[in-house]
Amino acid sequence: MNKNDVLVEFGNKIRQLRDEKGWSQEELAFKSGFHRTYIGMIERAERNISLKNIARMALAFDVKIEELFINTNKI
Amino acid sequence: MNKNDVLVEFGNKIRQLRDEKGWSQEELAFKSGFHRTYIGMIERAERNISLKNIARMALAFDVKIEELFINTNKI
């Protein structure tokens, strides 16, 4: 996997989980404690998120960290 | 999960995978392209590793990223 692909896949996963919850970026921002613009940058793969912030994102969605890396859209 | 616990768990997992392969920190450094001192800092939870570098670590071990977060030592 290309090192940048991982940011794209992660961003897509965050957007997918957010959509499944029916949350706006503002709502995820509120639940995670991140700024709304940071959520947008993560979803657009514009930020190389750190492990601590990945854990914080998992907590906001109430999922295990590994679940953020399982791409259920892949065949 | 505490945000710092995730660094400890990740560091332990890296050490565990490295031990399973029978690799020294130097060998993992060579395979991953990281400096040996960076490997040590990750294993001791002294660095907040980024997603790109997590992907690079998974590649070095030839595992999926999610496998770096599955703690097989937990009961």
Automatic annotation (TrEMBL), chains A, B:
<keyword id="KW-0238">DNA-binding</keyword>
<keyword id="KW-0805">Transcription regulation</keyword>
<dbReference type="Pfam" id="PF01381">
    <property type="entry name" value="HTH_3"/>
</dbReference>
<keyword id="KW-0804">Transcription</keyword>
<feature type="domain" description="HTH cro/C1-type">
    <location>
        <begin position="14"/>
        <end position="68"/>
    </location>
</feature>
<dbReference type="InterPro" id="IPR050807">
    <property type="entry name" value="TransReg_Diox_bact_type"/>
</dbReference>
<dbReference type="InterPro" id="IPR010982">
    <property type="entry name" value="Lambda_DNA-bd_dom_sf"/>
</dbReference>
<protein>
    <submittedName>
        <fullName>Helix-turn-helix domain-containing protein</fullName>
    </submittedName>
</protein>
<dbReference type="InterPro" id="IPR001387">
    <property type="entry name" value="Cro/C1-type_HTH"/>
</dbReference>
